[in-house]
Fold this sequence. Notes:
Number of domains: 2
Radius of gyration: 24 Å
Number of strands: 17
Shape: globular
Structural class: alpha/beta
GO cellular component, one term: cytoplasm
Protein name: Jasmonic acid-amido synthetase JAR1
Domain GH3 middle: 344-372
Family: Belongs to the IAA-amido conjugating enzyme family.
Number of helices: 20
Helix content: 40-55%
Domain GH3 C-terminal: 387-503
Strand order of the largest sheet: 2-1-5-4
Amino acid sequence: xxxxxxxxxxxxxxxxxxxxxxxxxxxxxxxxxxxxxxxxxxxxxxxxxxxxxxxxxxxxxxxxxxxxxxxxxxxxxxxxxxxxxxxxxxxxxxxxxxxxxxxxxxxxxxxxxxxxxxxxxxxxxxxxxxxxxxxxxxxxxxxxxxxxxxxxxxxxxxxxxxxxxxxxxxxxxxxxxxxxxxxxxxxxxxxxxxxxxxxxxxxxxxxxxxxxxxxxxxxxxxxxxxxxxxxxxxxxxxxxxxxxxxxxxxxxxxxxxxxxxxxxxxxxxxxxxxxxxxxxxxxxxxxxxxxxxxxxxxxxxxxxxxxxxxxxxxxxxxxxxxxxxxxxxxxxxxxxxxxxxxxxxxxxxxxxxxxxxxxxxxxxxxxxxxxxxxxxxxxxxxxxxxxxxxxxxxxxxxxxxxxxxxxxxxxxxxxxxxxxxxxxxxxxxxxxxxxxxxxxxxxxxxxxxxxxxxxxxxxxxxxxxxxxxxxxxxxxxxxxxxxxxxxxxxxxxxxxxxxxxxxxxxxxxxxxxxxxxxxxxxxxxxxx
Length: 528
């Protein structure tokens, strides 16, 4: 269980982490023994002939490495309320978590229990302890762009919701965050609202501005949510200033619980604060350095910045200028690695992530996330990863930068409806609706995209025309917001959202959104 507020000591947490990582193999074996002992009665382990044994060699011989697909029949029985209580675990499962669903187009159901909550908070505590060592905070506040979606009950009566929703709605979460000096600016009603998340986002920003002198951390689960929040701020900053100046919440907020909670913060007009914020914003050049201007005591911006989040780093640096995260918080996100906590184990299960071991922290591996295993552009002998796509987009956007344009977001698709098949890259560009990007410029971008895929298989197949010319489709402004809303409509949560970088056949609804909102199309002349 997370320690009580008065017991939390960052140096003690780090000391324990150092001890565990120096003895990673022994700790892993003990963790496995404990898990097998606690779940010996589970039907799944019994059916594999483990019979209560905890020896690692026997465990590996009896229990196969599986994916979520192999476990789905067992999970479905739990969801449906099967009378056999101990199907996958020794204790009954009472809660189900949903994945974001952005990779395959639908959410996966994952059992959730108290142990998962405890291990999640262990990770929070450990990462906080290292951040505090580098960036001490003194009972300040955290502007957290976090959102809890609606929970529901399964056929079998279990509570179900996204992983972040189950976490944020757990009454122990608030206590645990307070213990590690991470009190949110926003009241629970804003975080836990099941209304349109834009209402929560607006109020997160307003709460942060009201407490601007006390904000020491700006955070979210993923970098995307932070960038999205400040793009939204660019649109509503004057309205936020009006709310503070008049002491009255805008009529755009219709949720009665949120309005009641915000009334306790907007207790009176504050002309001085509103004017100060207005002057700060009016004095910025293209919103550069927005975060430290709004929140002068902020020490770091925190969230997952690696993998599919790396494309947002340029914009985030534009807003903030500096980033801190992970065990070595001063390391740039592109170089960030994550030390495995040896006392937390997932055994014989394929997560579907491709990672690279970059080194070791004592004797525990330090991992760098590379990509999701399923996210791959491939037609012939070509194999381009999510990282390859990102690098190609970065190379092409250098041309846009000359005209002060930027790609808001991007994704891709393998189009096999033509012969030969070809890559389609979708861009939403800031300023397209105002005709700021010329056809000549976008044609050059399309060529640069095609030329920038470095995979030898792709280049050779393009040269012999086994793969057709790359196509760049430019989208209406707000298209990626529609894709986000689509996933929220499926029960997803903003806190877990990741823009899908490669849209496969299973994501037909997203493909339809992209097709309906494409306003321009360009075909590469490279390799002609």
